[in-house]
Design goal:
Length: 281
Amino acid sequence: MIQNPRKRRIRLAFTNLFFIFLCIAGLIPILYALSVSFNSSNSVFATGFSLIPSDFTLDHYKNVIFSQPFLLWLKNTMLLAFFTVIISLAVAVPAAYAFSRFRFRGRKTTIYLLLLLNAFPSILSMLALYRLLHSMGLINTYTGLIIVYTGGMTIFSLWNMKGYFDTISIDIEHAAQIDGANDFQIICRIVLPLAKPTIIVTAVLVLINVWNDYIFAINFLSAAGKYTLAAGLYTLQATEQTRNWPLFSAASLLASLPILIIFFIIQKQMKSGLTSGGVKE
Protein backbone atom coordinates (compact mmCIF):
# COMPACT_ATOMS: atom_id res chain seq x y z
CA MET A 1 0.00 0.00 0.00
CA ILE A 2 1.39 3.41 -1.02
CA GLN A 3 1.39 5.88 1.83
CA ASN A 4 -0.08 9.35 1.32
CA PRO A 5 2.87 11.81 0.94
CA ARG A 6 1.07 14.42 3.04
CA LYS A 7 0.46 11.99 5.91
CA ARG A 8 4.05 10.86 5.70
CA ARG A 9 5.32 14.44 5.99
CA ILE A 10 3.01 15.12 8.94
CA ARG A 11 4.15 11.94 10.68
CA LEU A 12 7.79 12.82 10.05
CA ALA A 13 7.24 16.35 11.41
CA PHE A 14 5.67 15.03 14.64
CA THR A 15 8.46 12.47 14.99
CA ASN A 16 11.10 15.18 14.64
CA LEU A 17 9.30 17.41 17.16
CA PHE A 18 9.11 14.52 19.61
CA PHE A 19 12.84 13.84 19.43
CA ILE A 20 13.65 17.56 19.62
CA PHE A 21 11.59 17.71 22.80
CA LEU A 22 13.50 14.73 24.22
CA CYS A 23 16.83 16.39 23.40
CA ILE A 24 15.78 19.63 25.08
CA ALA A 25 14.49 17.73 28.13
CA GLY A 26 17.79 15.87 28.35
CA LEU A 27 19.77 19.12 28.16
CA ILE A 28 17.91 20.83 31.00
CA PRO A 29 19.86 19.09 33.85
CA ILE A 30 23.15 19.88 32.09
CA LEU A 31 22.20 23.51 31.53
CA TYR A 32 21.10 23.80 35.14
CA ALA A 33 24.42 22.36 36.35
CA LEU A 34 26.17 24.89 34.09
CA SER A 35 24.11 27.69 35.62
CA VAL A 36 24.90 26.53 39.16
CA SER A 37 28.63 26.36 38.37
CA PHE A 38 28.61 30.04 37.36
CA ASN A 39 26.64 31.13 40.44
CA SER A 40 28.70 32.72 43.20
CA SER A 41 26.31 31.70 45.99
CA ASN A 42 25.88 28.18 47.35
CA SER A 43 22.10 28.50 47.68
CA VAL A 44 20.85 25.86 45.26
CA PHE A 45 17.87 24.80 47.36
CA ALA A 46 17.14 28.25 48.79
CA THR A 47 16.41 29.85 45.42
CA GLY A 48 13.98 28.99 42.67
CA PHE A 49 14.83 26.96 39.58
CA SER A 50 16.61 29.09 36.99
CA LEU A 51 18.93 28.42 34.07
CA ILE A 52 20.46 31.90 34.41
CA PRO A 53 22.93 32.44 37.29
CA SER A 54 21.90 35.26 39.61
CA ASP A 55 25.48 36.34 40.31
CA PHE A 56 27.88 35.27 37.54
CA THR A 57 31.43 34.24 38.47
CA LEU A 58 34.27 32.03 37.20
CA ASP A 59 35.79 31.56 40.65
CA HIS A 60 34.54 27.98 41.00
CA TYR A 61 36.31 26.88 37.81
CA LYS A 62 39.50 28.61 38.99
CA ASN A 63 39.12 26.89 42.37
CA VAL A 64 38.70 23.47 40.76
CA ILE A 65 41.76 23.82 38.53
CA PHE A 66 44.16 25.67 40.84
CA SER A 67 43.02 24.93 44.41
CA GLN A 68 41.75 21.36 44.10
CA PRO A 69 43.76 18.30 42.93
CA PHE A 70 41.57 18.10 39.83
CA LEU A 71 44.48 17.84 37.39
CA LEU A 72 45.95 14.99 39.47
CA TRP A 73 42.61 13.17 39.36
CA LEU A 74 42.48 13.77 35.61
CA LYS A 75 45.98 12.35 35.14
CA ASN A 76 45.16 9.26 37.23
CA THR A 77 41.96 8.65 35.27
CA MET A 78 43.70 9.06 31.92
CA LEU A 79 46.41 6.62 33.01
CA LEU A 80 43.88 3.97 34.04
CA ALA A 81 41.76 4.52 30.93
CA PHE A 82 44.75 4.36 28.56
CA PHE A 83 46.07 1.03 29.80
CA THR A 84 42.59 -0.48 30.13
CA VAL A 85 41.71 0.45 26.53
CA ILE A 86 45.04 -0.80 25.14
CA ILE A 87 44.96 -4.14 26.99
CA SER A 88 41.24 -4.73 26.34
CA LEU A 89 41.62 -4.14 22.59
CA ALA A 90 44.86 -6.13 22.41
CA VAL A 91 43.01 -9.16 23.78
CA ALA A 92 39.54 -8.59 22.33
CA VAL A 93 40.42 -7.81 18.69
CA PRO A 94 42.22 -11.10 17.90
CA ALA A 95 39.74 -13.05 20.05
CA ALA A 96 36.75 -11.48 18.26
CA TYR A 97 38.29 -12.25 14.87
CA ALA A 98 38.98 -15.85 15.90
CA PHE A 99 35.42 -16.39 17.17
CA SER A 100 34.04 -14.83 13.99
CA ARG A 101 36.13 -16.67 11.41
CA PHE A 102 37.13 -20.02 12.89
CA ARG A 103 34.89 -22.96 13.77
CA PHE A 104 36.31 -25.01 16.63
CA ARG A 105 34.93 -27.27 19.34
CA GLY A 106 33.40 -25.38 22.24
CA ARG A 107 33.28 -22.10 20.31
CA LYS A 108 29.62 -21.28 20.94
CA THR A 109 29.69 -22.60 24.49
CA THR A 110 32.69 -20.43 25.34
CA ILE A 111 31.37 -17.22 23.84
CA TYR A 112 27.93 -17.59 25.43
CA LEU A 113 29.54 -18.44 28.76
CA LEU A 114 31.52 -15.20 28.52
CA LEU A 115 28.31 -13.34 27.76
CA LEU A 116 26.61 -14.94 30.77
CA LEU A 117 29.48 -13.93 33.06
CA ASN A 118 29.31 -10.37 31.77
CA ALA A 119 25.54 -10.22 32.33
CA PHE A 120 25.86 -10.16 36.12
CA PRO A 121 26.32 -6.75 37.77
CA SER A 122 29.98 -6.14 38.50
CA ILE A 123 29.19 -5.10 42.06
CA LEU A 124 28.34 -8.75 42.86
CA SER A 125 32.01 -9.62 42.48
CA MET A 126 33.22 -6.72 44.62
CA LEU A 127 34.05 -8.75 47.75
CA ALA A 128 35.68 -11.60 45.83
CA LEU A 129 37.80 -9.19 43.76
CA TYR A 130 38.82 -7.25 46.86
CA ARG A 131 39.98 -10.37 48.68
CA LEU A 132 41.80 -11.63 45.59
CA LEU A 133 43.61 -8.35 44.98
CA HIS A 134 44.36 -8.00 48.70
CA SER A 135 46.04 -11.43 48.74
CA MET A 136 48.15 -10.32 45.77
CA GLY A 137 49.06 -6.98 47.35
CA LEU A 138 47.29 -5.03 44.62
CA ILE A 139 44.87 -2.99 46.72
CA ASN A 140 45.48 0.75 46.36
CA THR A 141 47.44 0.17 43.14
CA TYR A 142 46.63 1.09 39.56
CA THR A 143 47.65 -2.40 38.45
CA GLY A 144 44.87 -4.00 40.48
CA LEU A 145 42.27 -1.57 39.18
CA ILE A 146 43.41 -2.05 35.58
CA ILE A 147 43.04 -5.82 36.00
CA VAL A 148 39.49 -5.35 37.28
CA TYR A 149 38.52 -2.97 34.49
CA THR A 150 40.18 -5.07 31.78
CA GLY A 151 38.54 -8.28 32.94
CA GLY A 152 35.07 -6.81 32.56
CA MET A 153 35.53 -4.68 29.43
CA THR A 154 37.40 -7.30 27.39
CA ILE A 155 34.28 -9.49 27.23
CA PHE A 156 32.14 -6.56 26.14
CA SER A 157 34.74 -5.55 23.53
CA LEU A 158 34.92 -9.11 22.21
CA TRP A 159 31.17 -9.37 21.71
CA ASN A 160 30.82 -5.94 20.16
CA MET A 161 33.63 -6.45 17.65
CA LYS A 162 32.74 -10.03 16.81
CA GLY A 163 29.40 -8.82 15.47
CA TYR A 164 31.21 -6.38 13.21
CA PHE A 165 33.71 -8.98 11.97
CA ASP A 166 30.72 -11.16 11.05
CA THR A 167 29.56 -8.44 8.62
CA ILE A 168 32.89 -8.38 6.75
CA SER A 169 32.62 -10.75 3.81
CA ILE A 170 35.11 -13.59 3.95
CA ASP A 171 35.28 -13.44 0.13
CA ILE A 172 37.47 -10.34 0.49
CA GLU A 173 40.00 -12.39 2.43
CA HIS A 174 39.84 -15.24 -0.08
CA ALA A 175 40.49 -12.78 -2.91
CA ALA A 176 43.52 -11.43 -1.05
CA GLN A 177 44.83 -14.97 -0.55
CA ILE A 178 44.55 -15.61 -4.28
CA ASP A 179 46.58 -12.43 -4.86
CA GLY A 180 49.34 -13.84 -2.65
CA ALA A 181 48.68 -12.10 0.67
CA ASN A 182 49.48 -14.06 3.82
CA ASP A 183 47.31 -14.17 6.94
CA PHE A 184 49.18 -11.35 8.68
CA GLN A 185 48.84 -9.05 5.66
CA ILE A 186 45.14 -9.87 5.31
CA ILE A 187 44.43 -8.97 8.93
CA CYS A 188 46.59 -5.82 9.05
CA ARG A 189 45.84 -4.40 5.59
CA ILE A 190 42.26 -5.52 4.98
CA VAL A 191 40.37 -6.69 8.07
CA LEU A 192 41.55 -4.12 10.61
CA PRO A 193 41.06 -1.09 8.31
CA LEU A 194 37.53 -2.32 7.55
CA ALA A 195 36.89 -2.82 11.26
CA LYS A 196 38.22 0.62 12.18
CA PRO A 197 34.75 2.09 13.05
CA THR A 198 33.89 -0.61 15.57
CA ILE A 199 37.39 -0.61 17.07
CA ILE A 200 37.18 3.15 17.64
CA VAL A 201 33.67 2.98 19.09
CA THR A 202 34.57 0.04 21.34
CA ALA A 203 37.64 1.89 22.58
CA VAL A 204 35.53 4.94 23.42
CA LEU A 205 32.91 2.85 25.23
CA VAL A 206 35.65 1.21 27.32
CA LEU A 207 37.09 4.66 27.98
CA ILE A 208 33.72 5.99 29.15
CA ASN A 209 33.23 3.02 31.46
CA VAL A 210 36.58 3.61 33.16
CA TRP A 211 36.13 7.39 33.17
CA ASN A 212 32.78 7.19 34.97
CA ASP A 213 33.53 4.32 37.35
CA TYR A 214 33.04 5.22 40.98
CA ILE A 215 32.38 1.98 42.87
CA PHE A 216 35.68 0.19 42.19
CA ALA A 217 37.77 3.36 42.34
CA ILE A 218 36.50 4.46 45.74
CA ASN A 219 36.84 0.96 47.25
CA PHE A 220 40.12 -0.19 45.73
CA LEU A 221 42.03 3.12 45.98
CA SER A 222 42.44 4.41 49.52
CA ALA A 223 45.18 6.98 49.00
CA ALA A 224 43.83 10.43 48.10
CA GLY A 225 46.74 10.99 45.73
CA LYS A 226 45.60 8.07 43.59
CA TYR A 227 41.93 9.04 43.29
CA THR A 228 40.29 9.11 39.89
CA LEU A 229 37.89 11.84 38.77
CA ALA A 230 34.81 9.98 40.02
CA ALA A 231 36.36 9.29 43.42
CA GLY A 232 37.75 12.82 43.62
CA LEU A 233 34.37 14.37 42.87
CA TYR A 234 32.95 12.42 45.79
CA THR A 235 35.43 14.05 48.16
CA LEU A 236 34.07 17.46 47.17
CA GLN A 237 30.68 16.41 48.57
CA ALA A 238 31.88 14.23 51.43
CA THR A 239 29.88 15.85 54.22
CA GLU A 240 26.76 17.93 54.57
CA GLN A 241 28.73 20.78 56.17
CA THR A 242 31.29 21.19 53.39
CA ARG A 243 29.08 20.69 50.34
CA ASN A 244 29.66 23.32 47.70
CA TRP A 245 27.26 22.72 44.83
CA PRO A 246 28.69 25.34 42.44
CA LEU A 247 32.18 23.90 42.94
CA PHE A 248 30.89 20.36 42.46
CA SER A 249 29.00 21.36 39.29
CA ALA A 250 32.07 23.05 37.84
CA ALA A 251 34.23 20.00 38.57
CA SER A 252 31.63 17.63 37.09
CA LEU A 253 31.37 19.63 33.87
CA LEU A 254 35.15 19.84 33.52
CA ALA A 255 35.39 16.07 34.09
CA SER A 256 32.84 15.48 31.31
CA LEU A 257 34.53 17.78 28.82
CA PRO A 258 37.25 15.38 27.52
CA ILE A 259 34.67 12.65 26.80
CA LEU A 260 32.44 15.18 25.03
CA ILE A 261 35.33 16.30 22.83
CA ILE A 262 36.22 12.70 21.96
CA PHE A 263 32.59 11.95 21.13
CA PHE A 264 32.40 14.84 18.65
CA ILE A 265 35.67 13.74 17.04
CA ILE A 266 34.52 10.16 16.42
CA GLN A 267 30.81 10.76 15.78
CA LYS A 268 31.22 9.77 12.11
CA GLN A 269 32.24 6.28 13.19
CA MET A 270 29.50 5.96 15.83
CA LYS A 271 26.66 4.89 13.54
CA SER A 272 28.37 2.06 11.67
CA GLY A 273 30.42 0.99 14.68
CA LEU A 274 27.40 0.61 16.97
CA THR A 275 24.78 -0.80 14.57
CA SER A 276 26.98 -3.38 12.86
CA GLY A 277 28.29 -4.61 16.19
CA GLY A 278 24.83 -5.84 17.08
CA VAL A 279 24.58 -8.53 14.39
CA LYS A 280 23.40 -11.81 15.85
CA GLU A 281 25.21 -15.13 15.68
